[in-house]
Amino acid sequence: MSSDSTITDTATDTAESEQDEHADEAPPAYPPSQPIHEGGHGHKEPTDGQYIWIAVILAVLTALEIAATEVGPDGPWLIPALLVMMTIKFFIVILFFMHLRFDSRLFSLVFYIGLSFAVVLYAAVLATFHFFTG
Amino acid sequence: MSDTTITESHDAEAIPPGYDDGEDHIGLEHHTSTGLSNTKLAMWLFLGSECLLFGGLISTYMLYRNRQSDQLGPDQLWDIPFTSATSFVLLMSSLTMVMSVSAAKRKDERGTKLWLTVTALLGGLFLAGQVYEFTTFYREGLGYTTSLFSSSFYTLTGFHGVHVAVGIVMLLSLVAMLVRGKLVGDKAETVEMIGLYWHFVDVVWIVIFTLVYLIPA
Fold this sequence. Notes:
The complex is a heterodimer. By secondary structure, chain A is mainly α. Chain A contains four helices and no strands. The termini of chain A are far apart. By secondary structure, chain B is mainly alpha-helical. In chain B, 75% of the residues lie in helices and 0% in strands. Classes of the chains: A mainly alpha, B mainly alpha. Chains A and B meet through helix 2, helix 3 and helix 4 of A and helix 1, helix 2, helix 4 and helix 7 of B.
C-alpha cells in the first residue's frame, strides 16, 4: 500500500514539474510546428530547381495555346482546348507558385469561395444576356 | 530587443487571445486565434475579393466584344506574337518572384533583393509592352469611347495594368527597405505577401490572355 502511494506521489511530482516547465516556455508563434519549406498539408515545398521546371511547363502550355490558335483558328475543338490549357496554367500558378497546395486549407477555402462566387455570379450574368446561346 | 521580447511574452500570457493590449507589437511574433498568420489570411481574403472585380470586368468585355464600330475589332487590331511575348515576360516574372520568396525563406538577403529587382524589371517590361499596344491601337483609331468593345477592352486591360504598376511600386519599395534595413518583422512573410499579390496579377493575365486575345470574337 505504501509503495503504491509512493508511485502515485512520484507520478504527481513528475506531472507538476513538467507543467512548470511548460509554463515557463514562451507561447508558440505561428505557423505552429511548421518548419521552413514544409507546409500545413505536410507536403514539402518545391525546390528552386522544381520551380524552374514548373515555369517551363507554363511556358510550354502558353506555346501550345498560341500554336492552337495558329493551326486551327476555326476548329470546333479550339475554344475547349484553350479553356482547358488556361485552367491548367491557372491552377499550376495558384497551387505551386502561390503555395496553396502547401499552406493551410483555410487559405484555400477563403480563396476558392471568392473564386467560385465570381464564376457562378458572372456565368449567371452572361446567361441572362444570352451569351452562351447567342 | 531581448528585453522587449521577454516583456512581450509575459504580456501575451496575461492577455486572452483576440484582445488588443493597445501596444505596438510590430516586428514581434504573435498569437492568432487560428494559429495562422492574420496578414496572410487577409491577403487571401483580398485576392478572393479581387476575383469578383476582375470577373465583372472580364464578363463585361465578353458581352461587348462584338459591339465594335468602323471595323476596328479584335481581328483587325490584335498582334498575337507581340502580346504572346509580353505574356511570356509576365509569366517568367512569377518564376523570379517565387525565387525571391525562396531566397527570403533561406534568409539570403542578397538573393532576395536580386530576384525582387528582376521581377520589378520584368513587370516594367510587360507594362511598357502594354503602353506600346495601347498607343498603337489609339493611332489606328481605337479611342476609349469609340465603341462598347473599346471601352470594355481598355477598362479591363487598364485595370490589370494598374495592378501591375502597383505591384512594381511595392517590389521596388521592398527592395529599398531591405537595402536601408528598414524592414521590420518577418521579412520572409513580407516578401511572400507581395509575392502572392504578384502571382495573382499573373493569374489574372493568364485568363485575360486566353479569353480576350486567343479566343476568336
